[in-house]
Design brief:
The protein has 451 residues and is of the alpha/beta class. The chain has helices spanning 39-46, 74-80, 100-110, 124-133, 149-158, 184-201, 222-226, 274-277, 325-339, 364-375, 402-411, 441-448, and strands at residues 3-9, 15-16, 32-38, 89-94, 115-119, 141-145, 163-167, 204-209, 229-234, 241-249, 257-263, 266-269, 288-295, 298-310, 318-321, 346-352, 384-386, 389-390, 396-397, 416-420, 435-438.
């Protein structure tokens, strides 16, 4: 049987007859690897279907209600949109040691149905030890250690289990493909075959995936297109807070997040996350401000801590934890240009307490206020909340879900809240009594430093 080698990009999956340094398809460097392709495989792919497809008007399609398997872990169900759907295949990823395998065992333990845990990296004894550590004693979880795709698919087809976890998809290989485990061909082939089984037998398959050094999901990008949902478990290195986020979800919203705390007995749901994100010890310190961010349907009160000190080196230090570094650079440039503070000549440290990474630009004004507070060693009172996005011209711009943010801050006892002036029409005259509206960042600082 004739065969040949081609070069395939590990980033996008495109194939080429010869090696090049830069992938012409996605533009990445040094991503082409030599893979083996047989003529028989090419003939199988080229064979078309003999039967024709029928066209159906979209209004004539009957949609039935699908039963979801609730995981009984509220934070997981929140992200999934209510639970796991039959015939779905989910990619679950995260950094090494973040808690992926632990959360998978907890999910299987909490669901009242038979399940299979296939591990290609751990022995059944190791899985048993972890299960005992986190208090799992279920008789409905069946464990095996196998990496060969043909064996795994046969096992799934013959067993009555409704939920199957493959840990990890990068360890699965097919004996019919000469490429090593984790290669583009192996990962794509394994995912396609598992998806076919999932759709035919109404089984739920969860694929645990690795991430690469850039923080992206390892393997071809087509892997994320094949699956029905992509979940990412995130967390800072020095924090025990874990955030579950949906990067893709065909059956629910991608705006929701689930919050957990890593403890000795596994991942514990955070029912009141504001206790984690607000540290009571620094309430009366300069450089501390409070704001509200929206993650899906949830509103969180966030504490920002900043330290601005004279630089001892030629190049001032910049250290930010939990916020976008480039966004911080923009805020510093606006403070220098519009207020003439010359703050960029100092060493600057910014920390979002609680160990979460925040993408919400509604924190801009609170971060700027925290920096100026530390620079002038001025304490901003605890009862002041600050919400707003900063534009390049120094204006304070409106943010989404402003009423939800204000309601959450009022619940926690914030007596006065600084808001963008464009949001003034969203509130009644009675509520405006304790709301302070500003149009420029200079107006916000005038209010803060004359209270």
């Amino acid at each position: 049987m004739k065969s040949k080698f081609v070069y395939q990009c590990t980033n996008c999956g495109a194939t080429f007859p010869r090696w090049v340094g830069k992938c012409p398809n996605c533009g990445e460097w040094n991503t082409l690897e030599e893979v083996f392709v047989s003529e028989e495989e090419k003939r199988k792919k080229s064979r078309g279907r003999t039967q024709t497809s029928s066209l159906v008007p979209i209004n004539a399609i009957q949609v039935q209600e699908y039963f979801r398997f609730p995981t009984n872990i509220k934070e997981v169900d929140r992200v999934l949109g209510g639970g796991l759907l039959p015939s779905s295949i989910i990619l679950f990823s995260g950094e090494p040691g973040i808690g992926k395998s632990t959360l998978m065992l907890q999910i299987l333990d909490s669901i009242d149905t038979e399940s299979i845990y296939v591990s290609g990296e751990e022995s059944p004894e190791q899985i048993k030890l972890r299960a005992e550590r986190i208090g799992i004693k279920s008789n409905k979880i069946f464990v095996t250690n196998d990496s060969q795709l043909e064996t795994i698919t046969t096992l799934i087809e013959q067993h009555s289990a409704n939920i199957i976890v493959i840990d990890s998809i990068q360890a699965v290989y097919s004996a019919e493909i000469p490429s090593p485990p984790g290669s583009v061909f192996q990962v794509r082939n394994a995912t396609n075959q598992l998806m076919e089984i999932s759709k035919k037998q109404d089984k739920i398959i969860i694929l645990v995936g690795h991430i690469n050094k850039e923080g992206n999901i390892a393997g071809p990008k087509v892997l994320e297109h094949i699956v029905d949902a992509v979940l990412m478990l995130e967390g800072e290195k020095n924090s025990n807070i874990r955030m579950l986020r949906a990067l893709k979800n065909r059956f629910g919203s991608t705006l929701e997040i689930g919050l957990f705390e890593m403890c000795g007995n596994g991942l514990i749901e955070l029912t009141d996350p504001n206790k984690i994100f607000i540290s009571q010890s620094s309430i009366k310190s300069s450089g501390t401000t409070f704001s509200a961010v929206v993650e899906g349907a949830r509103c969180l009160i966030i504490e920002i801590q900043s330290l601005v000190s004279p630089s001892s080196y030629g190049v001032p230090q910049r250290n930010v934890n939990g916020y976008d570094f480039k966004r911080l650079q923009m805020i510093l440039a606006v403070l220098d240009k519009k207020l003439g503070l010359n703050i960029r000549q100092n060493d600057i440290f910014v920390n979002i307490t609680g160990g979460m990474f925040i993408y919400d630009t509604g924190l801009d004004l609170a971060i700027a206020s925290s920096l100026v507070s530390s620079l002038n060693d001025f304490v901003i009172p605890y009862e002041i909340g600050i919400i707003g996005e900063i534009g390049l011209t120094g204006e304070v711009r409106a943010v989404s879900s402003i009423e939800k943010r204000v309601n959450e801050m009022e619940k926690l006892g914030f007596k006065r809240i600084i808001l963008p002036r464009r949001s003034e029409s969203d509130f009644s005259a009675k509520r405006k009594k304790h709301l302070l509206f500003v149009e420029k960042i200079s107006e916000a600082f005038d209010i803060l430093f004359h209270l």
